[in-house]
Amino acid sequence: MTLDRRTFLASLAALTLVPGRATATSHHPKHLVLLFASGGWDPTVVFDPKPDSSVVDMEVGEPYAFGNGSLWTHASRPSVTDFFGRYGSLCTVINGVNVPAIAHAGCRTRMLTGTRDRAQPDVGAVVAHALGAEVAMPYLDISGGAYPGPYASELGYMGASNQLSRLVLPDRAFRPPHGSLWDRHFPNENQSDAIRDWVQSRADGAMVERAAEGENARRKASFINGLERGHRLFEYETFFENTAEDSSLSEQVRTSLDALAMGLSKVVMIDARADFDTHRNNQDQSKRYEATFSGLLELMEGLSETPGAEGGVLLDDTLVFVLSEMGRTPRHNDDRGKDHWPYTSCLLLGAGVRGNTIVGSTNTSLVGQPVDLNTGHASASGTLLQSEHVLAGIADLFGVKPEGALGTAAPFRGFHA
Hints:
alpha/beta; 2 domains; two-stranded antiparallel ribbon; globular
């Protein structure tokens, strides 16, 4: 049997770890994984059940005791039950997050950046910028949904067909058409150095002529930064050789684990690849949750088994943020689906997170209620929880000051351990 790198890492971890053990111990995470569930999920199917409400239509399920409240589980989504049974001690569910919009693009922007402006950096970009100065690719976007803002030179996008790998692996790039007689040419080391020197000299000339200060200077510095990081990617040929064009959640998880374990990236964004936009037949939410939590289980198993670059395992210092762009209406429409709703739930787990906890609140009509931003408990004198509060709380957990990014709201610390 050939021992590949993933098998070796798993074998190494098995020497010192109990498989599946929930062991996020650090209160100061060093990695962030964003798992986005596109389409707008129905929080009542798992996170925020309202079985006794006369104005909320529920899907099949039964209460599952969790921390200070309950979740909603069913045999049709066994991965949800399995996940909370194994990793609930690392999880905080946040309910009643207000997204003051009901359009997909606008809600996604607000949930990731805390603002209405897609030119602003998302929480992953802010954390990666603060923590990733020494790594080649601080923010790895596998899903294609990140908002890097002014930190674009620090982000790498895998691409719909893994185009990023072709920058590092020449054999994957510029394949001649079938039957073609022309040969590919790749510059040798001397030619590559000459090209690099020429680009650098042009950039230096631009600095003198028109980029000495202000926004032009920032953009020139970002360009040079991107060039330098691009050259460093060649140190990670093994990583790119192990990536595939498949963008399934399972493949995204494996790629994420590799990027974090090898020290290539500090932040990774992946997508559940499960469309939660159920305007028809809201029962399909169960299938979407099952697929998402199946991938989340795989991610957690990988984090708990993969050695970290600084010792221990990745789970010890990794925060996982699972979110969707919006919620769904309390009542079914005429197609037994549910439409867009500006209150949603999200899940945080791993390093620095208070476990077995539900924070935030909605009433019996699924409308968010004011909470104390420090405790997460409902409070009549509290604040209506917005996405920017949650994002600022994540940055705060990393010890990062957003400097105007992620909105201007106070941080929500109700999930902090």
